[in-house]
Design a protein that fits this description.
The protein is of the alpha/beta class. It has one domain (6-195): Peptidyl-tRNA hydrolase (Rossmann fold, 3-Layer(aba) Sandwich), CATH 3.40.50.1470. It contains six helices and seven strands, in the order βαβββαββαβααα. It has a seven-stranded mixed β-sheet, sandwiched between helices. β2 (43-44) and β3 (50-56) form a beta hairpin. α1 (26-38) packs across α5 and α2 crosses α3. InterPro entries: Pept_tRNA_hydro, Pept_tRNA_hydro_CS, Pept_tRNA_hydro_sf. Keywords: Cytoplasm, Hydrolase, RNA-binding, tRNA-binding.
C-alpha cells in the first residue's frame, strides 16, 4: 500500500465516564492503544466533536503510513457527522476510513476485518454509512458475543464487561490494534488471514 496516503481510523463509542467500561466502547479502547503506540495523546480537533491523534504507524524511525486516529465526542448514533467532517478536512476517501467497533454476532475475544457491507443494526455504522454516502469503508469488528439468556441486545452493549472478560480484554484490544496496523501496512487479505477468527 502507498505510504503517502492518509488513513482515518475511527474508534466508535459513547463519550464520558458513564460509558467508559461498556462493551459498546471497545472502539475507543482500541484507538487509545494505537495512540499509546504513536506516543501522542488525543487532542480536540478544530472541526469539533472529535479528538484526534496524527502520526505514522510502524517501527519508530521508519516512515510508516500516515494516520489520523479519531474518537468522536458524540453519541454512537451521531458518529457519522464527525467522521465525515474529518474525512473532508483531511481529504480522505471512504476506502481509507477504518471504523473500529463492537460486534454482537462475533464471539468475545475474536474479531473480523472486512471492507464494506451492511450495518447489521449497529447505529454507529449506520450513521457513518449515511454521512459518507457509502458503506465502502473498512471495519475492524471486535467481538462482544450475544447477550446471555433473554437480555435485550441494546442493554447488553451498554453494560460493563464481566469480571472474566475484563481479564482478557487488554489482550483483545491489543490484538485489534495489531489488526488495524496490519490492515494499513499490509492490506486486507494479509489482515484477514492473520486475524479473522
Amino acid at each position: 500500500m502507498s505510504d503517502d496516503a492518509l488513513w482515518l481510523v475511527v474508534g466508535l463509542g459513547n463519550p464520558g465516564p458513564t460509558y467508559a467500561g461498556h462493551r459498546h466502547n471497545v472502539g475507543y479502547l482500541v484507538t487509545d492503544e494505537l495512540s499509546r503506540r504513536l506516543g501522542s495523546p488525543f487532542r480536540a480537533h478544530k472541526q469539533g466533536r472529535a479528538e484526534v491523534v496524527e502520526g505514522r504507524l510502524g517501527v519508530p524511525g521508519t516512515p510508516g503510513p500516515r494516520v489520523v486516529l479519531a474518537r468522536p465526542r458524540c453519541y454512537m448514533n451521531e458518529v457519522g457527522g464527525p467522521t465525515k467532517a474529518l474525512a473532508t478536512f483531511y481529504k480522505i476517501a471512504p476506502d481509507h476510513v477504518v471504523a473500529v467497533h463492537d460486534e454482537l454476532d462475533i464471539a468475545f475475544d475474536t474479531m473480523r476485518v472486512k471492507l464494506g457491507g451492511g450495518d447489521n443494526g449497529h447505529n454507529g455504522l449506520k450513521s457513518i454509512r449515511s454521512s459518507l454516502g457509502t458503506g465502502d469503508f473498512y471495519r475492524v469488528r471486535v467481538g462482544i458475543g450475544r447477550p446471555p439468556g433473554r437480555q435485550d441486545p441494546a442493554d447488553f452493549v451498554l453494560s460493563n464487561y464481566s469480571t472474566a472478560e475484563r481479564k482478557v480484554l487488554p489482550f483483545q484490544v491489543d490484538t485489534a490494534a495489531d489488526a488495524v496496523e496490519t490492515l494499513i501496512t499490509e492490506g486486507l487479505e494479509r489482515t484477514q488471514q492473520r486475524f479473522n477468527s
